[in-house]
Each structure stands twice: as structure tokens, then as C-alpha cells.
Write a structure and sequence with these properties.
This is N-acetylmuramoyl-L-alanine amidase. Helix 4 runs antiparallel to helix 5, helix 5 packs across helix 7 and helix 10 packs across helix 12. Helices cover 32% and strands 23% of the residues. It is α/β, with parallel strands linked by helices. Bound molecules: zinc ion.
Length: 429
């Protein structure tokens, strides 16, 4: 039973033409439906998530003067969970000024989002996955013009814009039906990086802190979230790589969900020489521990642990929530040859980084493991995924929470990259 207080009724009435007040008796029939609401403000885009027990039907439209996005949810009843949404809007949200909710008809809930700037909305539903129930996702992207203007500094906004239109595949290549343009490369030498890799300029390194926003990644026994740990470690790593004279970018530098394909597309668009994804591991058994480094396997995981991880990591897109997932591996001999050479280089890079990480923590395994991680699929960029430690292990969770371990991990990753790149230079002489 939903009761509107007199104050609420007055407040709803004050909202104006958009809402009509429905008699309380009519509201009582429908079940309370919303179980959670979340807002993830970020510069790249702001996401609003409404979570409900049942699947949601919706319509949306925009209004000008002032700019608003209106979402009508059918077969729904306003409840006190949904009413908390207004209080969740942060003052520094780049896109949202205010959110109002009301029972628009006996069976329709109306959400009105007052906007700070023109936006390109993406509204979609997600089926239950992991701990999430039915979700209605409202993503507020900057308008195309704003995205284009921001591209000079960082291609992320333009790529997200392309992604939201289904133009980017899960391997980061563009989805225009053609074989992605990759550079032909000679096969790599077994233990040194491929001499064919052109490094005539400052090497470009892309750091990829895993998860973000709606996708927390692993959560430690005391509540530490992987997305926050890995962002902190990536920022420290960037400082060190920049100080070494490399050009370093991050796939995300805020608490935002970035689809896996967009992360790879960003690295390709920046013409990255190396791609390093940073994570913290988790396993069903709390005793699992140790640092690990992974390279891509095109055939699937090489070990049971890698298989488990492959599933959970590739789930990120489902948990974080994406509307369209680009798909299908491209079948082309050139593509395969290039990827094979790239994987060999990735393994060499991985060994260099693992050697350094082995100095500060027990290694989960003595070698670089391989799995079919979506985020490592750039066909022409050596890519590794670093599992800094096990967040599911109480001892290692404490390590991951400590600033000194984060800094030493960052230093180890940077030193491993430096060792790899100095060999790459030697190999060219
Ligand atoms: Zn992860």
C-alpha cells in the first residue's frame, strides 16, 4: 500500500503539467515494484539504473526549454525506493540538474530528468544477471557535438557515441562489415619482442583499470571494491610510466562503466604500443592467493583457474550493462597471423611484468597464463591482464587496501614495461 502524504501530493502537484495525481485507492492495487535506484555520474556519461522485481516496459522522449528527458514506466507503482532518486542526484553531476518522479496514471510511473546540457539518451533494459534483478538503464551521453569537441583530448566520448550506435565490435574494431585494418607483422622472436614493431616515437601505453560504475568487479570480505583498487593502482602506474618518458593513457579515470570493446577501441584509436588491463582476482575459495598475469588465448583458457576467470571477466559487459555487444571473430589469414605475433609479444611483456611483480608478492603461477579475455583482443597491440592479488583472500584484501602495496604494484608494472621496451629497442638494432 502506497500512501502519499499531503506534502507529497502538494509537491507532485507543484511539479506542474507533467503529473496528474491519481487517487490513492488506484495505487494500492499494484505491487510495489522498484527494489533499488542508483546514479553513476561521470564526465564520459551519467547512468541511472532502476532495478525492479519484474521486467519493465517503458517509453521515453525529450522536451526542450528547459531540457528534460522523460521516461514513462508502464505497469509500475511509485514506491519509497524510487522516491529516493531525487536525493541521489549529485550537485556536480555533469548532466543531471534534478530528477522528479510521480504516478502519472494509475499504472504508469513518470521519471522526469531535468538536464544541465543537451544529451544523447540511451534507454534500455537488462535481464537479471549476477546479483542484479531486472534493470532499466538510462544512459545520458553528451550530445554528438560535445563528444566530437572532446575527441582531441581523449577519443573516449566519440567511441562511446559510436558504441551506443552499434558501430564498435567487442574486439574494439569498427563494425562496418569489413575486416579490421591491422598492420602486417613478422612473427615474433621467441623471447624478445618482435623487431618489426615500429617504435619511432615515444611508446604509447594504455592502462585499463577494470570494471567501474555499475560493475564493482570483485568485492572483498570487508567490502573493498575491485573497481576502486584498480583505478588507484592504474593512476600510480601512469605516474611512473610518464616519469619514465612514455606517453600513457587510461581507458577510464573515473568511476564509470566502460564496455570491454570500447576499452580496446580506445587503445587502437590512440595507436597504443602496449595495453595493460589491471584487476584484482577473486575465487570461490578464500584461500586462493597470489599475483597473476594473463595474455590472450585464441583457443580458450589454458587452466581451470583461467577458465573461471575468463567467465567472470567476460561477464563484465553483462553486469555493467551494455545495450549492444559487437560480435563474431573476424576470419582472415592476415588477421590471424597478426594476432599470433601479437600474442607472442604479449607473453614476453607478461613475463617481464610477472618477474617484477614476483618480487613483492607470491605468484599464483610461475608463468604467464592464457585465457580468451575480450579486453585483450586487440589484434595488433600486445596486451596483458594483471591480477594484482586476490581480493577474495582476507590477507590479500588488506594488501590491496594499503597504499604501499598499491604503489609497489604500480612500480613493478612500470618496471616490467620498461624492461620489455628496452629489449624491444635492442631487438631493432
Ligand atoms: Zn576484474
Amino acid at each position: 500500500m502506497v500512501k502519499l502524504t499531503r506534502r507529497q501530493i502538494v509537491r507532485h502537484a507543484a511539479v506542474g503539467l507533467l503529473f496528474t495525481i491519481t487517487p490513492v485507492a488506484a495505487l494500492a492495487k499494484a505491487a510495489q515494484q522498484f527494489v533499488a535506484v542508483r546514479i553513476w555520474p561521470a564526465n564520459a556519461y551519467t547512468r541511472i539504473t532502476l532495478e525492479a522485481a519484474q521486467a519493465m516496459k517503458y517509453k521515453h522522449f525529450t522536451l526542450d526549454n528547459p531540457a528534460r528527458l522523460v521516461v514513462d514506466i508502464e505497469g509500475a507503482t511509485l514506491n519509497n525506493v524510487l522516491q529516493t532518486i531525487a536525493a541521489k542526484v549529485q550537485r556536480n553531476d555533469p548532466y543531471i540538474a534534478n530528477i522528479r518522479v510521480g504516478q502519472n496514471t494509475a499504472t504508469t510511473v513518470r521519471v522526469v530528468i531535468d538536464l544541465k546540457q543537451a544529451i544523447n539518451p540511451q534507454v534500455f533494459t537488462l535481464a537479471p544477471v549476477a546479483n542484479f534483478r531486472n534493470r532499466l538503464v538510462i544512459d545520458l551521453y553528451p550530445s554528438a557535438a560535445t563528444a566530437l569537441a572532446a575527441e582531441a583530448d581523449d577519443p573516449l566520448m566519440a567511441l562511446l557515441n559510436d558504441y551506443s550506435k552499434g558501430k564498435i565490435r567487442s574486439d574494439g574494431t569498427s563494425n562496418n562489415g569489413a575486416v579490421p585494418p591491422v598492420k602486417e607483422r613478422a612473427p615474433a622472436i621467441v623471447d624478445t619482442p618482435s623487431p618489426s614493431r615500429p617504435l619511432h616515437r615515444k611508446p604509447i601505453i594504455v592502462l585499463d583499470p577494470g570494471h567501474g560504475g555499475e560493475d564493482p568487479g570483485a568485492i572483498g570480505p570487508s567490502g573493498l571494491r575491485e573497481k576502486n583498487v584498480v583505478l588507484a593502482i592504474a593512476r600510480e602506474t601512469k605516474k611512473r610510466l610518464d616519469a619514465m618518458g612514455y606517453k600513457t593513457y587510461m581507458t577510464r579515470n573515473e568511476d564509470v562503466f566502460i564496455p570491454l570493446g570500447v576499452r580496446v577501441a580506445k587503445a587502437r584509436s590512440l595507436k597504443a604500443d602496449l595495453f595493460i588491463s589491471i584487476h584484482a582476482d577473486s575465487f570461490t575459495s578464500p584461500s586462493a592467493r597470489g599475483t597473476g598475469v594473463y595474455a590472450l588465448s585464441t583457443r580458450g583458457a589454458t587452466s581451470a583457474a583461467a577458465r573461471f576467470l575468463e567467465q567472470t571477466q567476460n561477464n563484465a559487459d553483462l553486469i555493467g550493462g551494455v545495450q549492444k555487444v559487437g560480435n563474431k571473430n573476424v576470419d582472415s589469414t592476415l588477421f590471424d597471423m597478426t594476432q599470433t605475433a601479437t600474442i607472442k609479444d604479449s607473453l614476453v611483456l607478461g613475463r617481464n611484468v610477472l618477474n617484477e611483480l614476483g618480487k613483492l608478492n607470491k605468484l599464483h603461477k610461475g608463468h604467464v597464463d592464457q585465457a580468451n579475455f575480450a579486453v585483450l583482443r586487440a589484434p595488433d597491440i600486445p596486451s596483458i591482464l594483471v591480477e594484482t592479488a586476490f581480493l577474495s583472500n582476507p590477507t590479500e584484501e588488506k594488501l590491496l587496501a594499503s597504499s604501499s602495496f598499491r604503489q609497489r604494484s604500480a612500480a613493478a608494472i612500470a618496471n616490467g614495461v620498461k624492461a620489455y621496451l628496452s629489449k624491444a629497442v635492442l631487438a631493432r638494432r
